[in-house]
């Protein structure tokens, strides 16, 4: 029992990522975990904690959310996010954001201030202005790294057209996608507070070189994000696979209907998706955490009240 | 057991005072659509083709809330959404914020078949539509006089509801504080009934498919997305079954309703009707919705906790039924 928190910065980490690109990401994991743990210790609700951690990850330019979001085929950003309160199953989601500094907070406002769950594109931007949330010029979110990534993805596409779905040789495919850097990435945080309430939050810029208007799994309740009274899940990976496999929902469904433990259910859900396309973090109402992935690596961190903590990128031994 | 089966719906939540001619009109449309689907199944068309062609018919007819005849946004425009899923490999396609495409369900199918993605929305979806050369029309084509009138009533109803200080619980969210199946999405169903459309089919090969299409919530905020385009919420098809839902979008999303039917069949071994009943009873909390479903064994089922649901179903052994009420 007790509180627990897990967060991720995306599944799909290229083996060839140089130390100067790894280090700031690792530091961010440390920093965000610390923030989240302090907030939980201070008695904040799981919902507040996941929002604040994801805001921090969005603000970090090294992760694919908020600043640092990957670019569409037109070189623009279209951010999406989703938040869910396990206790009430209330949820909020946004897509197609171009100027909102913290998509996750707008998602929360959709949940709390509108009769709807999901707002997108112009309507979401208009709502953001109504609510007076922080907005900036779209260029704020675009980083040199992502401009480069887009360029490589466009070049690789010419090659990629000859290949079918990722096979077991995931690392090879990931290299193909863009000179050693991966297309995958999303940020998320799940937590259970000292009251036993669960919450999840996920945010992303989506898929590199995605078509304008493409929506991934992140804002789709049950695909990339889900929380109920049993567990909270935030997933990352190839959106199209997560959507058809309703990954986040399945973790909870397996626990509920087949009596699997959190760890078993999460592992099963990740195994059900093609190799090299998914990872997730999850916590249970009883304070357990799990962070399975079927990619080469996943930026992740977790901590539980009983003192266990882990910050990692590669598979644990 | 075995053989093909088909079900169609035109929305859960029906005004009990709906004039008889309207009820008749609706039943005729459902019958016509069922027959279209049945013909197609008899010609051995695969499930995925059948659900698309049936939903196209429902979109084209102005009676229900999809394609022409869609509910209007708060600005009086139409923003349509749809999703389609092929149970065989769980391939799926969805669109939202469609404003000029005559048949959103076909655009959703193209997303599934012709794009590297599963879901396209707003200007990106419209752009894709043009690239694909689908039939497009002016947004006005979808707007009916009746819905313009309904929008006005909906705006007034919202004002009245607030003036009379009806219990504020949930009034600013989608589950009405007035606990009644006659108020859905915060509005009396005499003013607005969901009327999303959908079709589920299992073909002679035992393959399931599902498709759902809608104009969404009357007087919705611009950019509002409901359950219909969300795989797992409004639409789902897998090995075991195909499901299409309708009703209060927010309740369906929160309950991941369509996926739930398949999940309890998969993980708890429930049969189709049991699964449908379980989900309607246990997964809606204070929400109101209905759904239709088929199983790979050629069964068909539906369930709803609303006042009525426009539906029709048929199976290969000759069973056929079109109904509105319990």
From TrEMBL, chain B:
Location of the active site: 196
Record-level Gene Ontology MF annotations: asparaginase activity; beta-aspartyl-peptidase activity
Gene3D superfamilies, A to Z: (Glycosyl)asparaginase (3.60.20.30)
KW DNA-binding (keyword) present: no
Top-rank EC class of the record's enzyme: hydrolase
Site (Cleavage): 195-196
Binding residues for substrate: 224-227, 246-249
InterPro entries reported for this sequence: Ntn_hydrolases_N, Peptidase_T2
A GO BP entry: proteolysis
Lineage: Eukaryota, Viridiplantae, Streptophyta, Embryophyta, Tracheophyta
Protein keywords: Autocatalytic cleavage, Hydrolase, Protease
CDD domains in the record: Asparaginase_2
Pfam families reported for this sequence: Asparaginase_2
Name listed for the protein in its UniProt record: beta-aspartyl-peptidase
């Amino acid at each position: 029992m007790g509180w627990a928190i897990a967060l991720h910065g995306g599944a799909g980490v290229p083996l060839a990522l140089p130390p100067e690109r790894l280090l700031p990401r690792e530091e961010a994991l440390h920093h965000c975990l610390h923030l989240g743990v302090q907030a939980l210790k201070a008695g904040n609700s799981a919902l507040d904690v996941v929002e604040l951690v994801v805001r921090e990850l969005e603000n970090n330019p090294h992760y694919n959310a908020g600043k640092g979001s990957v670019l569409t085929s037109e070189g623009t950003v279209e951010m999406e996010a989703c938040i869910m309160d396990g206790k009430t199953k209330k949820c909020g989601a946004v897509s197609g954001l171009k100027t909102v500094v913290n998509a996750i907070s707008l998602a929360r406002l959709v949940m709390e201030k509108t009769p709807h769950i999901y707002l997108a594109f112009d309507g979401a931007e208009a709502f953001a202005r109504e609510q007076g949330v922080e907005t900036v010029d779209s260029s704020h979110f675009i980083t040199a790294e992502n401009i480069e990534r887009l360029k490589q993805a466009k070049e690789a596409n010419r090659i990629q057209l000859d290949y079918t779905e990722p096979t077991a040789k995931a690392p090879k495919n990931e290299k193909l996608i863009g000179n050693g850097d991966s297309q995958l990435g999303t940020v998320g945080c799940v937590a259970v507070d000292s009251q036993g309430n669960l919450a999840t939050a996920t945010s992303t810029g989506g898929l590199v070189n995605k078509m304008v208007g493409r929506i991934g799994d992140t804002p789709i309740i049950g695909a990339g994000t889900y929380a109920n009274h049993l567990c909270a899940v935030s997933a990352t990976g190839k959106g199209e696979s997560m959507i058809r496999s309703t990954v986040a929902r399945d973790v909870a469904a397996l626990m509920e209907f087949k009596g699997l433990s959190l760890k078993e259910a999460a592992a099963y859900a990740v195994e059900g998706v093609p190799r090299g396309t998914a990872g997730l973090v999850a916590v249970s109402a009883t304070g357990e955490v799990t962070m399975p992935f079927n990619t080469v690596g996943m930026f992740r961190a977790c901590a539980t009240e009983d003192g266990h903590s882990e910050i990692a990128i590669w598979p644990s031994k | 057991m075995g053989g093909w089966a088909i079900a169609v719906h035109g929305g859960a939540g029906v005004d009990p005072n709906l004039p008889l001619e309207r009820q008749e009109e609706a039943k005729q449309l459902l019958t016509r659509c069922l027959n279209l689907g049945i013909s197609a199944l008899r010609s051995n068309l695969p499930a995925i083709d059948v659900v698309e062609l049936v939903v196209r018919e429902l979109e084209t007819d102005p009676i229900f809330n999809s394609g022409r005849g869609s509910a209007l946004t708060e600005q009086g425009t139409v923003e349509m959404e749809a999703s389609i899923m092929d149970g065989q490999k769980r391939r799926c396609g969805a669109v939202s914020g469609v404003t000029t495409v005559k048949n959103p369900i076909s655009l959703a199918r193209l997303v599934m078949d012709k794009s590297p993605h599963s879901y396209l929305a707003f200007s990106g979806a419209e752009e894709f539509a043009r690239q694909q050369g689908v039939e497009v029309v002016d947004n006005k084509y979808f707007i009916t006089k009746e819905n313009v009138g309904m929008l006005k009533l909906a705006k007034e109803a919202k004002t009245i509801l607030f003036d009379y200080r009806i219990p504020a619980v949930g009034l600013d969210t989608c589950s009405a504080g007035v606990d009644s199946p006659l108020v859905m999405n915060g509005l009396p169903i005499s003013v607005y009934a969901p009327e999303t459309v959908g079709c589920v089919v299992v073909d002679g090969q035992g393959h399931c498919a599902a498709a759902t299409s809608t104009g969404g919530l009357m007087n919705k905020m611009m950019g509002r997305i409901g359950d219909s385009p969300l795989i797992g919420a409004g639409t789902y098809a897998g090995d075991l079954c195909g499901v299409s839902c309708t009703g209060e979008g927010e309740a369906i999303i929160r309950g991941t309703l369509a996926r739930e039917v398949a999940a309890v069949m998969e993980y708890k071994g429930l049969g189709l009707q049991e699964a449908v009943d379980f989900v309607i009873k246990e997964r809606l909390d204070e929400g109101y919705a209905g759904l239709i479903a088929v199983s790979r064994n050629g069964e068909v089922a539906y369930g709803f906790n609303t006042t009525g649901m426009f539906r029709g179903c048929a199976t290969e052994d000759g069973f056929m039924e079109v109904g509105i009420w319990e």
